[in-house]
Amino acid sequence: xxxxxLSHNIKGGKKMNHSLISQTINEIYEQYIKTRNSIGIVNHSxxxxxxxxxxxxxxxxxxxxxxxxxxxxxTSFYTIFLRKKKFISEVLILRLSxxxxxxxxxxxxxxxxxxxxxxxxxxxxxxxxxxxEYSLFAFHGNNATDFFKGLEYRYIFKTKRQNYxxxxxxxxxxxxxxxxxxxxxLDFVPxxxxxxxxxxxxxxxxxxxxxxxxxxxxxICNEIYPFTNLRIRTRKVKIHKYELEQNxxxxxxxxxxxxxxxxxxxxxxxxxxxxKRYPLVIAFIYRTKAKIPVVRVGKxxxxxxxxxxx
Length: 310
Hints:
- By secondary structure, this protein is α+β, with helices and mostly antiparallel strands.
- It folds into 3 domains: 8-46 and 133-202, Gyrase A, domain 2 (2-Layer Sandwich); 48-129, 2-Layer Sandwich (Alpha-Beta Plaits); 236-309, Elongation Factor Tu (Ef-tu), domain 3 (Beta Barrel), CATH 2.40.30.110.
- It contains 7 helices and 18 strands.
- Helix 1 (25-36) packs across helix 6 (193-202).
- It is globular.
């Protein structure tokens, strides 16, 4: 993967260390296989968490949500926060009660700033920074659905992020260690953020939206979270996943061409899975009728095999 963000690593047995230390490729692959064959637990307690409460709380959130939210939204959903045409963050919304919503995302300062600004127009609402009060855990792996689908617990949320559905757990921050020990006693695999990225990529989740070139960013946002709350004109862009047919190192600086040498798209990211011979590529194609795509790396070209059209 050429993803530049750092990960939480696992150090000292099963204790989850929050120091930002990169794992080796072999460690990532080994942990991915263990998690895939069992259930992995990922600690997301570092994310910003903001409690929006009051009668107009849903309207306040709708000030910046690209997707129109109403009373039928359920208890857990992802959306994108935009300020006019400026991307702010992808956020998770957890509904704790009728008029209490927890807004969760990695851009803590930006999210808090726009929520406080919107609150000026909704005086019956309050916005509280609860980052230090809650812990959030995500679960991945082939056995996760079977384990959680029969459980009835108020703070276990079945969440759909773009095209991928998985489970998350919200708990008090003071109970974080107890929660981890409980799941470790059930043989859950402690999983780092780098390993989680493989699950997200492999389940067709677009990460690092803020790094998408501006010419494509809003169009991709509209593809993964259709704009039902905004009127913004976007270009026609499709998201595709390909598998390289040669072992090339591909980055987001490389482009995709058709068989005539005409540029038809850009690469967002590439990643490798331990059981795949060649890398996988997530790309944005703006000439949607083009056929026989190739990736050009320097003076070399590699054919790419379509895996999925989003």
